[in-house]
Amino acid sequence: MSLQALAEMCERPNDFSSGELMTATVRTQKSTKRSNQMFDLKSRGSTGWREFTAGMSMFLASAYSIIVIPGMLADAGLPRGPVTTAIIIMIALATLAMGLYAKMPFVLAPGLGGVALVAYTLMIGEQIPFPVVMGMVFWSGIAFLVLTIFGIRNLITKMIPTNIRLVIGAAIGLFIAFIGFRSGGLFVTDDNGLTLGDLGASSALAALIGFVVLVALQARNVPGAFVIVIVALTVIGIPLGFTELPDSIFAAPESPAPIAFKVDLLGALSPHYLPYLFAFFAAEFFSATGVVMTVSEKIGVPDAQLKKPFLVDSVAIVGGSLFGSPSMTTYAESAAGSEAGGRTGLTSLWTAALFALMLLFTPFATMIPAAATAPILMYVGLRSLTGFVRIDVKDLTESIPAAMVLVCTLLWGNFGTGIAAGLLSFVLIKVAALKFREVNLGMWIMTPFLVYFFVAAAH
After folding, report:
1. Are 171 and 123 contained in the same domain?
2. Same structural domain for residues 177 and 233?
3. How is the chain split among helix, strand and coil, in percent rounded to 5?
4. From CA 27, how far away is CA 300, in angstroms rounded?
């Protein structure tokens, strides 16, 4: 309010008194003081302007989520308009909570890996109804919340074999890249399996060129590279015919009612879905843990203060599942905010406000073609494959199960099944090699469920 008053005074410099100027200045100082007190800007070595620019950077780095994620869920048959609205609302609310409660510079949005599991593996591949899938997301969030409240995250970390934990990100990345190549028309599926797509098609050429440009922009650390590529390809697609213009760019957002609160909590607890529950949990758990710890270390926040960010993350997963926005997680793009100087929750508040503003631009989000989002999926997926280089390839009982996760994910087009195959093969290979002591209690407990999963899948 005070900034607006000052701006008006600047527009009419000869029409205000010194008393008005002093009053406006005092209000601005009080507002700045409140921000300093609430977010402790001074001790964190930050300023209000720096937090704003960091919030803008974090928004630009993660804005692609409100375009890519609805497109992926629309592929599974969900209405794109309501999905877009639900996702924007959840991003704004979760990021706002991160700023106000945890007072940390993080942005939360649906994770690509979790959404890929929802849309392509469960809904398209397994034909599982949307409410049941949301029930799985809900229970994975509850598990994350319980672990966070009781401070036993390290327990689950130790239960999962290190090699499998390291390769999960790579498996998810492989699956995301697979989706990107397919949505860009770079390959097609037929009776002979995967074959080369029509690379002469304008949409396929645009996706390839967009991918090359995106990698170049990312290599040069250009802010908002994802958004730049998406917007450029969308505009190019208008004369080329693969972008359909909406009636209006500005419009009231569609109601999320068609997808909100459609959750089957009991149906999601079927033993057959255990590997998928684990896949959701693993993707959310390790993604959030890695991002929060990495960014927190950069801005000088000790591990002892990380419980609040994890609480916000886990509550966002639960809330997102109820509202139709699956697999909410702390985005790696949060690093864009810290790199721009963001040190407090004020950065998150600015990011949340910018996302909320996007509710007025939902028609633009729904017009984005698959060719414009394909380069993003290809880049994010291929970038995630680097995790495999950390596997100990000298120990076959470690490297082969890890490789099974990747190979089975690719061959079956399902990283939930890939993870299950890697976990089961880990136990079987260790037992065959007489390395019983290297299989922990948690894996022994999980093995019968994994066997049941593959027996049921065989029928």
Report:
1. yes
2. yes
3. 75, 5, 25
4. 32
Rounded to whole angstroms, the maximal C-alpha distance in the chain is 88
Kindly write down the DSSP assignment for every residue of 83-98, as one continuous string: HHHHHHHHHHHHHHHI
- The verdict on residue 367 lying in a domain is yes
Name the pTM for this structure.
Answer: 0.70
Query: Is a pLDDT exceeding 50 seen at residue 13?
Result: no
Span 445-456, pLDDT tens digits: 888 877 877 776
- CA–CA separation, 204 vs 378, rounded Å? 13
Please state, in angstroms and rounded to a whole number, the distance separating the CA atoms of residues 274 and 266: 13
The number of CA neighbours under 13 Å toward the Cβ of 411 is: 10
Return the structure tokens found at 243. 């972008």
Determine the pLDDT at residue 248: 77
Is the same domain home to 59 and 32?
Answer: no
String of DSSP letters for 290-328: HHHHHHHHHHT--GGG-HHHHHHHHHHHHHHHHHT---E
pLDDT of residue 38 exceeding 80, the answer is no
User: Tokens 């029409």 correspond to what residue?
Assistant: 15
Per-residue pLDDT at 355: 93
Closest listed residue to residue 76, CA positions, set 137, 131, 130, 124: 124
Per the rule left: phi > 0, alpha: psi between -120 and 50, beta: everything else, 21 is: alpha
Of 373, 275, 266, 263, which is closest to residue 326 (Cα–Cα)? 263
Q: Mean pLDDT over residues 426-444, rounded?
A: 91
The residues near 44 (Cβ < 8 Å, ≥ 6 apart) are: 299, 300, 343, 344
Asked which of 386, 405, 437 is the last residue of a domain, the reply is: 386
Beta-carbon count within 10 A of 394 CB:
7
> Which one-letter amino acid corresponds to residue 164?
I
Query: 111 exposed, middle or buried (CB, 10 Å; 0-12, 13-18, 19+)?
Result: buried
Going by C-alpha positions, the residue among 51, 92, 39, 106 that lies closest to residue 289 is 106
What is the residue range of 19's domain?
A: 4-38
Question: Within a domain: residue 123?
Answer: yes
Helix (H, G, I), strand (E, B) or coil at 440: coil
* Same domain membership, residue 259 and residue 120: yes
The Cα–Cα gap between 63 and 355 comes to 8
